[in-house]
Specification:
Shape: globular
Structural class: alpha+beta
Protein name: Transposase
Organism: Streptomyces mirabilis
Pfam families: DDE_Tnp_1
Radius of gyration: 17 Å
Distance between the termini: 51 Å
Length: 155
Amino acid sequence: MPSSSGTRGFDGGKLANGCKRHVVVDTLGLLLGVMVTAADVGDRAAAHILREQVAAAHHRLALVWADGGYTGSLIEHGLATFALVLAIVKRSDNMKGFVVLPKRWIGERLFAHLMRSLRLARDFERRIASAEAMIYWSMAALMTRCLARPHLGRG
């Protein structure tokens, strides 16, 4: 586990300071895997490690949708190593303005749920392990609220 100085970084592309959260969710938006890295760690480097963790834990996983930051050798490596298809979801060139694509909206909705947790709204955590644990804790609280909500339509 890196020291606290290894958890901080600056991503020049996104102009983000601190850490980045990489997540894998299912089609319902439930968390399958999470990895927190310093912001200066590239998306593709983090995806190699996270994909190995998720593929080991979820053997039936066959298709992963990802955004354009996860292109390159990841596609071939995932297919050859894990028999896992990595489909890149990109917007077409003729789209104008801010458009969130339906497949990517599932992951964006997870990040919106995470931002409802006070500890995750800002980058308070000093250790990567505690940052990842807070994400799992927030998802457990979200799933508990969904289960406790009265379901309409049941007689």
